[in-house]
Design a protein that fits this description.
The structure holds two protein chains of two kinds. Chain A is built from 13 helices and no strands. By secondary structure, chain A is mainly α. The N and C termini of chain A lie far apart (52 Å). Chain B has a domain of 155 residues: MetI-like fold (Orthogonal Bundle), CATH 1.10.3720.10. In chain B, helix 10 packs antiparallel against helix 13. The radius of gyration of chain B is 24 Å and the shape is globular. Classes of the chains: A mainly alpha, B mainly alpha.
Chain lengths: 285, 273
């Protein structure tokens, strides 16, 4: 009756049951407070079996331009972050202990500081009579104040500031994973530093680059607070449009259609980058 | 000989340029935080930089204004409940995700990260619809429960990463010596997960304390601190908010220091993964 194999099976089954019990409360919460409400919202977009709300989003020039603008801003933020982040990550990966600690502090303190605090600070810095314009005028570098706030430039500055760490950290992690003997061997064989960087370090760090790009692009696409405050109404992102539809016009089906489009775009980018990352990994192996 | 000298010279120039570039980026990152300090101590009655003199009037204004204090207390309450819920639910969930051999467990592991992938604005209006039916709008615990959904994936990512590197043979040894399972988890497993637990708790607290988008929709008239700050920025930019910002920066610095001390670098793994 009680063969050892049978016994082991009973123990394994009891173990599985215990583990499942541990997960039930969390899964219930995720189901009730996340999955169900989100699916309910998305289903509102096709309420009454019509695609009219998607048509409105795709054909009305106003909404199309908001969707395109959001994409454009997300792309610009991603590009600027990449250009700023790569050298920083490279520097961090070669820094000594003190440099690394200081660099990480400079990276993580703003990262953990409330987005509101930082947005407020940018309002103070970038305004017509803000710190930057005043200083530049005092130094005689400019005559009229630069338009830095309530426009695309202000939104870009604010968003890059919030999202930069999301780009630096994945690139830094992938640079650390590179075997230091590889570039050393290349240089030992006579390759100049720039060539060993271009041919070895850069390709091997691509997984981190694509991960950082995906993260930054997706997060910027859904951004809300920074464009709302620094754009001063002149820059409209999809998320602001969704909020407006719900709060002002109570147009839930249309907000749901916009949400569906935003979510689909987000998932598509994740899938694309996932494939690229795998491709880059395979190519470097 | 000469070539190698030339090359090492080139390299040190490159290194110098890289250092200067990195320093400029770090300055860009820290500049907004630094500018808030002098403004918060300003003696001027409106926003002025550099301040004409120094005083503590804006801190006084913050402490004397019941609406600021109420918002602060509400945010602390919500963040505390969110931390308790996210840890209480997320740590057991991590055990399940790491140790279960059920088919489809990998997929479930992926799915638990969904709340960080779905844009917050979508979660916000989805919950706004549900919560207003349940008349939960304006209740601080409603905000806390919503924040738990966002914090849970971070807890799972951190805790399961360190659980994967934990050697289960230790638990079997303790069990062989007659210890009961809850006791083993409490005395053998959890103490070794401590760095990731500390980091996860810190992350949950700060993420809830700073969260604005969900709170905007769900907190109604009883505002959380970020919502109060948002309204204040829209209405009247006075230096009270600079004082609040300084207090928040200090809070985060202290928490960050403590977490680095007890969390041993586990914090960065959430983002680098």
């Amino acid at each position: 009756m009680s063969s050892p194999g049978h016994n082991r099976e009973v123990i394994a089954r009891r173990r599985e049951r215990g583990l499942l019990l541990l997960a039930v409360p969390a899964l219930l919460l995720l189901g009730a407070i996340f999955a169900w409400p989100v699916l309910r919202l998305l289903s509102m977009s096709v309420e009454g079996g019509t695609l009219a709300h998607f048509e409105k989003a795709a054909l009305d020039g106003l909404y199309v331009s908001v969707l395109l603008d959001s994409m454009k801003i997300a792309l610009m933020v991603m590009g600027i972050c990449l250009v700023l982040a790569y050298p920083v990550a490279l520097w961090l990966s070669r820094a000594g202990r003190v440099g690394l600690a200081l660099g990480m502090f400079a990276l993580l303190l703003p990262f953990w500081t409330s987005v509101l605090v930082r947005t407020y600070a940018w309002l103070v810095l970038l305004g017509r009579n803000g710190v930057i314009n005043r200083t530049l005028r005092d130094w005689g570098w400019i005559e009229a104040p630069l338009p830095l706030l309530h426009n695309t430039a202000g939104v870009l500055i604010g968003m890059v500031h919030v999202l930069l760490p999301y780009m630096v950290l994945p690139i830094y992690a992938s640079l650390l994973r590179i075997d230091p003997d590889l570039p050393r061997a290349a240089e030992g064989l006579g390759a100049p530093a720039w060539r060993s960087f271009l041919r070895i370090t850069l390709p091997l760090s691509l997984p981190g680059v694509s991960a950082g790009c995906a993260l930054v692009f997706v997060l910027s696409l859904g951004f809300f607070i920074t464009p709302a405050l620094l754009g001063g109404g002149h820059v409209v992102m999809v998320s602001m449009l969704i909020e407006q539809q719900v709060r002002e016009f109570l147009d839930w089906p249309f907000a749901a259609a916009l949400s569906t489009l935003l979510l689909l775009a987000t998932l598509a980018i994740y899938a694309l980058i996932g494939r690229l990352t795998r491709g880059a990994r395979l190519a470097t192996q | 000989m000469r070539r190698s000298k030339q090359r090492s010279q080139q390299r040190s120039t490159g290194k110098l340029l890289l250092g200067i570039f990195a320093a400029a980026v770090f300055a860009f990152l820290l500049l907004p935080l630094l500018v808030v300090f002098p403004i918060s101590f300003s003696s001027a009655s409106y926003l002025q930089f550099p301040p004409p003199g120094y005083s503590l009037q804006w801190y006084q204004r913050y402490l004397d204004d019941p609406s600021w204090i109420e918002a602060t207390i509400r945010s602390v309450q919500a963040a505390t409940l969110c931390t308790v819920l996210a840890m209480g639910l997320g740590v057991p969930l991590s055990f399940f995700l790491v140790r279960s051999r059920l088919p489809g467990i990998r997929l479930l592991d992926r799915l638990t990260a969904a709340p960080i992938i779905v844009p917050t604005i979508i979660i916000s209006i989805a919950l706004y619809g549900v919560f207003s039916r349940l008349q939960l709008i304006g209740e601080w615990y409603g905000v806390a429960i919503a924040h738990t959904v966002l914090a849970l994936p971070f807890v799972v990512i951190l805790v399961s990463a360190s659980l994967r590197s934990f050697d289960e043979a230790q638990e079997q040894a303790a069990a062989g010596l007659g210890a009961s399972w809850p006791w083993i988890i409490w005395r053998v497993t959890l103490p070794q997960l401590r760095p990731s637990l500390v980091s996860a708790a810190f992350l949950s607290f700060i993420s809830s304390f700073d969260e604005l988008v969900l709170a905007m929709f769900l907190s109604g008239t009883s505002m959380t601190l970020p919502k109060k700050m948002f309204d204040n920025i829209l209405m009247e930019i006075d230096p009270t908010i600079a004082a609040v910002s300084v207090l928040q920066i200090l809070l985060v610095s202290v928490a960050l220091g403590l977490t680095t001390l007890f969390g041993r670098g586990a914090l960065t793994t959430t983002i680098t993964r």
